[in-house]
Structure to design on (297 residues):
């Protein structure tokens, strides 16, 4: 299927019976003048129908990424996404660049990235719910961000190459991580770079943890590599340069249950007697942030 056919086919996902009511709710949002402040909390003020906005935001749950403040409605997402954004902030400058955010969720990082005035900002995420959350926020922000209901696997056929590709929190969800890294490689322009993060395990060996069913209660985690194994995957995918930017441990300040998600969060995913372990007994999630270049010169 070519790109146009894919887009058309995926547009039909907006008609799914769990998504269609959300689409019609956001189509009924009143038009008005708003001002937007792109800080740690993305804040929107102006001509707002407070009650309707609150009810619509509630319909769009779960809110994983954020937070957003729209008038009196504070969408306190599960993740304080500004912690990751601020950690990475010193490592990029997007001015006049073609930028992609792969696995962009509701677009929180892309809204923030507008501060650099990139030439083009494209988000890829195959979730119609997260795209609808994006459209809701973008109703007020009125950005030029392009949101594609596509996955990382579509980068090789995409009609644009990028100067910088962000791919945060996606690699461990892929059953073939090297194939995913190759797709990122093919999405880049010659001088391009990827900023990627993933869970990792400690160790000097070139090894990866392969969870039997779940990791930290997350079902679709396939491989959690050591940093050395991650580097080998990246080199095998064709990257010429691999640089570790940051390492971090997620805590319950960054990820926790709020009233904007149903169900559990990090506090239930770790061993209650030993937070260095997941509930399954694996090493607790740690993240490594890396920069990959096609060509180190
Ligand atoms: C763990 S979240 C990470 C969100 C965000 N990038 C971050 O780091 O906070 C993974 C995201 O990847 C998206 N996703 C799922 N399948 C994907 C695919 N094939 N290609 C790109 N993104 C995908 C999910 O919808 C979800 O928004």
């Amino acid at each position: 299927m070519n790109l146009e056919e894919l887009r058309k086919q995926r547009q039909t996902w907006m008609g799914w019976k769990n998504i269609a009511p959300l689409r019609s709710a956001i189509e009924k949002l009143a038009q008005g003048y708003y001002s937007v402040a792109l800080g740690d909390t993305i804040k929107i003020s102006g001509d707002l129908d407070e009650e309707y906005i609150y009810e619509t935001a509630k319909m769009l749950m779960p809110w994983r990424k954020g937070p957003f403040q729209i008038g009196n409605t504070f969408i306190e997402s599960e993740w304080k996404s500004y912690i990751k954004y601020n950690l990475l902030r010193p490592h990029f400058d997007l001015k006049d660049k073609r930028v992609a955010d792969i696995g962009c969720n509701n677009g929180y990082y892309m809204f923030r990235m507008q501060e650099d005035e990139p030439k083009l900002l494209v988000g890829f995420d195959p979730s119609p719910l997260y795209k609808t959350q994006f459209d809701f926020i973008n109703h007020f922000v009125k950005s030029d961000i392009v949101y594609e209901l596509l996955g990382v696997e579509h980068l090789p056929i995409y009609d644009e190459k990028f100067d910088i590709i962000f791919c945060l929190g996606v690699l461990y969800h892929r059953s073939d991580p090297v194939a995913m890294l190759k797709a990122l490689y093919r999405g880049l322009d010659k001088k391009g770079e990827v900023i990627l993060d993933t869970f990792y395990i400690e160790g000097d060996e070139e090894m990866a943890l392969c969870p039997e069913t779940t990791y930290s209660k997350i079902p679709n985690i396939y491989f959690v590599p050591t940093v050395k194994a991650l580097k080998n995957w990246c080199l095998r995918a064709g990257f010429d340069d691999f640089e570790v930017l940051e390492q971090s441990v997620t805590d319950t300040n960054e990820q926790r249950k709020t009233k904007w998600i149903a169900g559990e969060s990090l506090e239930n995913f770790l061993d209650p007697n030993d937070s260095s372990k997941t509930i399954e007994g694996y090493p607790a999630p740690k993240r490594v942030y890396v920069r990959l270049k096609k060509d180190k010169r």
